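Hi there, hope your week has been kind to you so far. Please have a think about how the structure follows from the sequence. I've dropped the whole record in just underneath, so have a look:

_____
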Amino acid sequence: MSTPETPRYPVPDIEDLPDDIRAKVLQVQEKAGFVPHVFLAFARRPAEWRAFFAYHDALMVPESVGRESGLTKGEREMIVTTTSAANHCLYCVVAHGAILRIYEKKPLVADQVAINHRKADISPRQRAMLDFALKVCNHSDQVEDADFAALHAHGFNDEDIWDIAAITAFFGLSNRMASFSGMMPNPEFYLMGRAPKAKPTA
């Protein structure tokens, strides 16, 4: 049985990783102050790690592949948090909820969209975005032209709609990998972005 300390699959040591993966993990560690568990859990299969994070970055950091997106960083994380909650993925809700709180500078928003995005403190545009994301998540076979029209009315273009659907689909994979493998959120994620940082006194 997995616990927060013992996932179902062995996690490699950082020093045993291929050079390119180790460099990326150390870069993340330096920026965040810790290594999110997903970076080491997936590194047990280096080829899959590279493919996973290449697609992740293409969607979540589009400028890294020379592309612009009509979605903000916060909106992308909003999609991940909302659909991960629908998929009951503890790791992704906690981890991406933390990032969402930081990007949006709203300590309550992640909990709100995870439970009921229609009552969350978000814009009508973002509500329509999450309505569509959840339809892709739960009933992608029922997506129709009327769904595109509803998003167009809020200023989304067809490439933005692709982004919403692709982020939803990609994290559907991530949710299932995290859940079946027993991946648990790092403790650091739970408190990130919940309270404003104390300003230094003069």
User: Anything to note?
Assistant: The chain has a mean pLDDT of 95. The two ends are 51 Å apart (CA to CA). Residues 52 and 117 are 27 Å apart (CA to CA).
